[in-house]
Structure formats: structure tokens, C-alpha cells
Amino acid sequence: MVSNDDQLNSIRRKRMAAGWSQQELADRTGLSRAGISAIESGRLAPSVHAALALARALQSTVEELFGGTPESTESVEWGIAPNTPRPRYWYANIGSETLSYPIAEDSTQLDWHDAVYDPVQIESPDPELADRTLVVAGCDPSAHLLAAEYHRQFQFRMIVLRRNSRESLQLLTAGKVHVAGMHFGRSEEKSANRKAARESLGKKCSLIRVAKWEEGVAVSPALESSSISSLLRRRARWIGREEGSGARQLQEEVLGSRPAPRRMALDHRMMAACIKAGWGDAGACVRLCSEEAGLHFISLHAKHYDFCFRDEMSADPRVSALLATLRSRRFRSKLAELPGYHTEQTGELI
Description:
The chain has 350 residues and is α/β, with parallel strands linked by helices. Among the domains are: 4-66, Orthogonal Bundle (434 Repressor (Amino-terminal Domain)), CATH 1.10.260.40; 74-131, no CATH class; 213-302, Periplasmic binding protein-like II (D-Maltodextrin-Binding Protein, domain 2, 3-Layer(aba) Sandwich), CATH 3.40.190. Helix content is 37%, strand content 21%. It is built from 15 helices and twelve strands. Strands 4, 5, 6, 7, 10, 11 and 12 form a seven-stranded mixed β-sheet that branches. It has a three-stranded antiparallel β-sheet with strand order 2-1-3. Helix 11 links the parallel strand 8 (239-241) and strand 9. The protein is globular and about 75 Å long. The termini are far apart.
């Protein structure tokens, strides 16, 4: 590495030759102005990401600016990839790793972030907070109720990533979440969740029942249709669901060999919102979201929504607290009040 004086002269000289202020260089690199100042003065060793960004912006090489490739003493290991260069994020310990989760539109709660990503100066995570955070992936539209009660009873926090059943199980298999929610299977299948979990994780996993909920088709009140056959006869405009979701399986049962819908909703609430906004006439979702949006609902069957976790996590206090919350009278009572939710087996290990 070059000396601090050489580093200051090299970066500042090139910046000033370009006629840029420190803020302009920061804007061109995605770094902060304070970070640029600290790097120029030699008070901060840049990360590899920052060094490459500076070299590109100044039309130079890392070697010319720094005399070699700098090594960052801190790094962020993302549980899921961020969509922006400087995301707000949370973190949690999963196994021996501390993973970070960017706050995005598909995160259902916890707007209060742990840190803001700065590639020049990575914040060290709070180990106690990371140990008290449970990461759940799933599509349950009532997940925020569980997260609130989980925190109220045990002072743990729950990060809920909005993902369909297949994506949730993939994240669990990859070790990126503690718990995956799923509702696989067609109407006649009773053990599809267990089968999917075993295919991905073998027998070293457990399922716990969250609820049995009503699935069916949300329908625009303007159609005044009360049956699937009526919808199909009237050539209703359908909103589809993405591959890997439990609702997609229901959609395929209903539509059969008909062409797949052109427009797509990514979860139950989005489906109801799309129909309410007039983007379509009908689509597969759960009763809760349909009724909340003021739509008609054609109930087709009740399906189990289960949580899956690795057996090695069963002794983790965060998972133990989750099971206790699901089994608590207060939570079961509130969940049972939601339209289409049945809680007779809530909290049972499958």
C-alpha cells in the first residue's frame, strides 16, 4: 500500500483535476462524502468495493490509487441480495453466521432498521440483537400479528420475508432463514407440505401447524358471479400467481388447460389489490385478503399452512419461543377471529 500522504495526493489530485468536489465524487461512486474525506486523508482504509468504485470514477486503477488491492476488515454477508446500493438492513445470527437482510417492499414489518449499508465503513452488528432475531420466510398475510405477539410475549423480534412456499423452502435449505412457511398441495393432497420438506431437507426437519385457511377465488363485485363455472363462461380477466406459490396450484386446478393469465400478483394481498383496482376480475387467494378488500369470494377448499424448521434449531430459544407463541391462548384466539382461519391444530408438531 502507498503511504497516507501518497494516497491523499493521488485521490485528491485526480478528483481536483476532474473539477469535482468530494460530494460529486461521492455521488459518482455511491460512497458517502464523509467516507471520501476519510479515504483521502488516510484515516480509513477502503473496502475492495470502494476502491474499485473510486478507480472507475477517476478512470484509474486500484494499483495507481492505492498501490495494491485493499482488504476490508468488515464485510456484510447478505441473507438476501439488496435491490439498492445503500439499503437499510436488519441482521440476525443463523448458525455461526451473522446475515443481513435489506428492508424492501416485500418485508412485512420492522421499518426500524439496524444499519444503513456503507461500503466504506461497515457497521459492526450488535451480537445480542442478532441472537434475539428470528427470520421467517412465508406468505401468510397475518404474519404481522404473529410477529407482534412473539415480541410481546418473549421480547424476541421476528423478521418476516414475503416469499412464496417454494422460495421460502429454498431459503431454509440454503441456511438463510430459521423458518419457512408453506402451503403446498392440491385440494386432494393432505401431506404435501411434509413431502416437500423431506425432499429438500431429508428427515432432519420438523413442521408445526400455523393454521388451516380457506383458499379460493377472489372476484370483483362487478361480475356478480358466484361459481367457478360462471366465471369461466363469462371469460373473466384473471390475475395469475407466480410459479412456486400454493395459490398457483389452485389456479391451475381451476383454469386447467386454459392459457395462463398475463398479469401476475406476487402474494395474496397483492392479488386482492389488483382486482380491487380493476386490473382483473378474478384470482386465487385466501379468504382473509378477499374479504378485507371488499371482494366476493368463492371458497374451494381449506389448506394447511405450516412452518418448517431444521431439527437442529429445536433447542434454539427463538424457535422455542415461536412454538410457545403459536400455542398460546391469546394468539390462537386472535388468529381464529380472522376470516377463513381455523386454529384447531395451531401449534401442533406435524
